[in-house]
Amino acid sequence: xxxxxxxxxxxxxxxxxxxxxxxxxxxxxxxxxxxxxxxxxxxxxxxxxxxxxxxxxxxxxxxxxxxxxxxxxxx
Length: 75
Known about the structure:
- The protein is mainly α and 75 residues long.
- 77% of the residues lie in helices and 0% in strands.
């Protein structure tokens, strides 16, 4: 729980989301690493962090249709 709070208060998620938006629909290492990060959060079911990220960035996630990870986070 402490680590999740540190991520929320550090603002680092904004940088990750910024990179995600820049690299949408590109098949490169940055895109793959970001998708893997969100898949990790989803599979580990880190609810407070997932809830926060979905509340803040839902519109970004809804536009990503080439992987199921983001749709599964929204649900």
